């Protein structure tokens, strides 16, 4: 078995005391001749789990590997280097990854030269690294979310010494610019505006896996967006775990509202942002949204629970009244606005009455769509230390009750769209029916319709004829 070298390991304790002062660097591409020789024209495979932050990380990793002369493949059986880019937000996310790591045992036994790497949020946890080292001896390299910029250094070491490596450092204050990037799509793009999170919701692992919140400089964000507009991109989504606190660490007067206004003025056809934090969502953002037609009138505004006591235990800094007041304030200035949300069911010791308060809130807001989760304890987070008197069966029951309540609204909104014409950004040929194209509306509803493949990446008008709960069917409208 190969020796293991620990270049740096994660620590939940260190993660809690991370400093806020950000430092800005230019990415340094530093391959040795050995690395270039070993990887030139070889194929790499990368699979990403989790959120948009991880998808964007995949694009950076691909950019680095492409710059090394490597070629992307979707077939893990024929690659020279494989990377699993993991998510740790819930147990089922991690279970999927363990299954996939298991599948690589066979692939690696047939292809001894394969370099097998794991990165992403799971690798920011010491107990997971220990488990992988012990159970999966064929994993060669593990690196953390802050170490993507060290990928080439790691490969240089690997080709020098051929050991197993673990590299997870707490460089949470660092922001790297001029990163290589190979975007997955040619018409829609994610642009990071900040990294990390300072909120420490008691159930959530993200502040530990992604570090303290740090904002990119607005001139860098705007330059990146400008380039996307020039390349003909149709949609930009500005990304941050909490976009509303953009700029707080910069101390130069920059705010999310100002940034949003500037990006919208670049005239990208569609502009979105993810994710908003209710008590940080300020009225100046509502005004900027109302001012620009190209900012989509659809907001993802996670509420997590409708019970004030549960919100307090979750360390969410608002109550249900403040949340509803915000929704009403936004609706009064932007009447056609629609909302989606995230909700966690079965937080430790949640009573049935507290759960019912979530149902009440949902019935007041009327969401167009929602992501619902059963609470999953995450090692090292405060909530994971709470005893829990609610059985898993009871949580599943409440989960189903919540989904049924939400689906009444989804159905209402979907039916209301029948007979009307909407702008649809065309994404791909439908996987289920090759005759149809698949795209999505301003409010993120999936639409299927007949059309030519060359419409992919374009915004077209589609009249809706039929609706299902989670997708719509329509026909192209020629102008
Ligand atoms: N920064 C974003 C995304 C966080 S992760 C935000 O604050 O909304 C996406 C969603 O996963 C969260 O909104 C929450 O609803 C859910 N989630 C996070 N940790 C969880 C846990 N331990 N169990 C169940 N759901 C969780
Ligand atoms: Fe997690 Fe809360 Fe931060 Fe979202 S805001 S990433 S839920 S800690
Ligand atoms: Fe998952 Fe990490 Fe995103 S835990 S949800 S990939 S920030």
Question: Could you explain how this protein is built, in words?
Answer:
34% of the residues lie in helices and 23% in strands. It has 14 helices and 22 strands. It has helices spanning 12-16, 33-39, 52-67, 91-110, 126-135, 151-161, 206-210, 218-230, 256-264, 283-291, 308-313, 320-333, 352-365, 392-416, and strands at 4-8, 23-26, 43-48, 71-72, 81-86, 115-120, 141-143, 164-167, 174-177, 188-192, 194-195, 214-215, 235-239, 270-274, 298-300, 338-345, 369-374, 421-429, 436-440, 446-450, 459-467, 471-476. The chain has a 7-stranded parallel sheet, sandwiched between helices. The chain has a 5-stranded mixed β-barrel with strand order 18-19-20-22-21. Strands 10-13-14 form a 3-stranded parallel sheet, sandwiched between helices. The longest helix is centred in the last third of the chain and has 25 residues, at 392-416. It is globular, with a radius of gyration of 23 Å. The chain starts with a strand and ends with a strand. 38% of the residues are buried. The mean pLDDT is 95. It binds S-adenosyl-L-homocysteine, iron/sulfur cluster and FE3-S4 cluster (F3S). The site of iron/sulfur cluster (SF4) has 10 residues, from helix 7.
């Amino acid at each position: 078995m190969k020796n293991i070298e620990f270049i740096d390991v994660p620590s939940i304790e260190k993660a809690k005391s991370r400093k806020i002062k950000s430092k800005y660097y230019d990415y340094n591409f530093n391959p040795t001749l050995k690395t270039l020789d070993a990887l030139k024209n070889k194929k790499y495979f990368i699979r990403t789990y989790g959120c948009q932050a991880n998808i964007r990380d995949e694009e950076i990793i691909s950019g680095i590997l492409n710059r090394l002369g490597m070629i992307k493949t979707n077939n893990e059986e024929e690659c020279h280097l494989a990377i699993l880019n993991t998510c740790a937000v819930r147990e089922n996310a991690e279970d999927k990854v363990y299954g996939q790591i298991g599948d690589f045992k066979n692939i690696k036994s047939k292809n001894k030269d394969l370099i097998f790497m794991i990165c992403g949020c799971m690798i920011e946890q010491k107990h997971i690294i220990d488990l992988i080292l012990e159970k999966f001896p064929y994993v060669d390299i593990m690196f953390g979310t802050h170490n993507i910029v060290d990928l080439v250094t790691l490969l240089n070491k690997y080709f020098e010494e051929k050991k197993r490596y673990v590299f997870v450092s707490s460089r949470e204050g660092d922001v790297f610019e001029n990163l290589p990037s190979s975007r997955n799509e040619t018409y829609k793009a994610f642009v990071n505006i900040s990294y990390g999170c300072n909120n420490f919701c008691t159930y959530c692992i993200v502040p530990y896996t992604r570090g303290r919140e740090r904002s990119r400089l607005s001139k860098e964000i705007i330059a990146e967006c400008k380039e996307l507009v020039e390349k003909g991109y149709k949609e930009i989504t500005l990304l941050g775990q909490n976009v509303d606190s953009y700029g707080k660490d910069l101390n130069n007067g920059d705010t999310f509202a100002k940034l949003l206004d500037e990006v919208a003025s670049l005239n990208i056809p569609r502009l979105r942002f993810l994710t908003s934090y209710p008590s940080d969502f300020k009225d100046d953002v509502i005004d900027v949204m109302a001012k620009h037609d190209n900012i989509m009138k659809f907001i993802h505004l996670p509420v997590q629970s409708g019970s004030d006591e549960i919100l307090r235990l979750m360390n969410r800094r608002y109550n249900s009244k403040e949340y509803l007041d915000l929704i009403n304030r936004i609706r009064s200035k932007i009447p056609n606005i629609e909302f989606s949300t995230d909700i966690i069911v079965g937080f430790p010791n949640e009573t049935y009455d507290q759960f019912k308060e979530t149902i009440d809130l949902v019935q007041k807001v009327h969401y167009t769509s929602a992501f619902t989760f059963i609470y999953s304890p995450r090692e090292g987070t405060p909530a994971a230390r709470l005893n829990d008197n609610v059985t898993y069966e009871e949580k599943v029951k409440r989960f189903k009750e919540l989904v049924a309540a939400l689906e009444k609204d989804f159905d209402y909104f979907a039916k209301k769209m029948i007979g009307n014409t909407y702008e649809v950004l065309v994404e791909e040929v439908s996987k289920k029916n090759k005759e149809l194209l698949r795209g999505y509306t301003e409010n993120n509803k999936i639409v299927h319709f007949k059309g030519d493949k060359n419409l992919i990446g374009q915004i077209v008008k589609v009249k809706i004829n039929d609706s299902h709960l989670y997708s719509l069917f329509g026909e192209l409208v020629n102008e």
